Amino acid sequence: MHVLSIREMDPETIDSLISSSLEMKKACRSGGSVPNLSGRVVGMLFLENSTRTRVSFEQAARKLDLGICVFGVQGTSMAKGESLKDTVLTLRYEGIDGLVMRHNCSGAPYLAARFFGGPVINAGDGMHEHPTQALADAVTIAEHKPSIKGLTVAIVGDVLHSRVARSNLWLLSKLGAEVRLVGPRTLLPRHPGHLPVSIHYDLASGIEGADVVMALRMQKERMDGGLVSSMSEYALMYQVNARSLRFAKPDCLVMHPGPINRGLELDDWTADGPNSVINEQVENGVYVRMAVFAAAFESNNGKPKKSQKKAVKA
Ligand code: ASP
User: Fold this and answer.
1) Given this model, what pLDDT does residue 225 score?
2) Contact at 8 Å (CB) between 181 and 237?
3) Domain count, the chain
4) What is the CATH number of the domain that holds 25?
5) What digits encode the pLDDT tens for the residues 237-272?
6) Does the residue 2 lie in any domain?
7) How far is the CA of 257 from the centre of ligand 1 (A)?
């Protein structure tokens, strides 16, 4: 099974990945058993910067005894100009069983999936999707709220450049949440008609009564400039802080996919305060990636299954 996008994933698969992530968490914390994927090797092709996602995929692989081979542009033939297709074919014929891929081009993992024999997992492609981040966010919400169905989730900030927002809006709406996109006109989708969301240019009304407020990083590296008049004005109008959070429900969850620009999207009090579940998002990222590896390899295109359960040291 490839994991390329949440938009293309059916709600049953989303539900089952959430449940499996929660089982992985329970097993890891209690010394229970998790699938053993030893004998397989996954290539980690990270062609864009990453801390959380890369480390959590590596941690997830280790917990499942899955071998890893980490690549970036530097130190590989991509620095000599080798194409993505040829890189993927090389890894395939060297016997790599699966591919985790981060790329700055939207859609690059689809190209990899065409030429690579085994499962391909999208670890963030350009401005398109970041499916495992949305799954980690859903697991975190599911641990705090009775159900995702019926929740109001406000996604605040630079939606235009955010693959996290795109994966989340599909996931949350497929599971029955109301999704609001909140931010300046220039950072919200220009043609939102096909998206299952409402659009809000005003922070207070956008987060009013919200159960979850998800702030997004200002992706300066993807901005040509001219999208906000100044970062300090953005903070004044859209920062999620104690003052703006008064409009959300008192027990609302504050989320951020990281990395945070502290003092811009969130103030310190909110990032570290009682409503914040940001560190839980990070931790759950490991369990989600374990669940995704297990699902990807369990159903791998007729290859013999090598997975068997193994006990985890608590
Ligand atoms: N870490 C997330 C991503 O890779 C969010 C961000 O960078 O703002 O998309």
Assistant:
1) 72
2) no
3) 2
4) 3.40.50.1370
5) 999 999 999 999 999 999 999 999 999 999 999 999
6) no
7) 6
Distance 266 CA to ligand 1 centre (A): 15
Ligand 1 centroid to residue 217 C-alpha, Å: 7
- Domain carrying residue 19: 11-130+285-308
Task: Encode pLDDT of 72-118 as tens digits.
Answer: 877 778 778 889 999 999 999 999 999 999 999 999 999 999 999 99
How many A from CA of 46 to the centre of ligand 1? 13
Per-residue confidence (pLDDT) for residue 237, from 0 to 100:
97
Distance CA 36, CA 12 (A): 24
Asked, for residue 90, whether it belongs to a domain, the answer is yes
- Assess whether 169 and 105 both reside in one domain: no
Pocket of ligand 1, beta carbon within 6 A: 124, 130, 163-164, 217, 219, 257-258
Helices marked H in the chain — which ranges? 11-30, 52-63, 84-93, 108-115, 131-144, 163-174, 203-207, 231-238, 242-245, 268-272, 278-298
Residues 142 and 258 in one domain: yes
In a domain, 4, yes or no: no
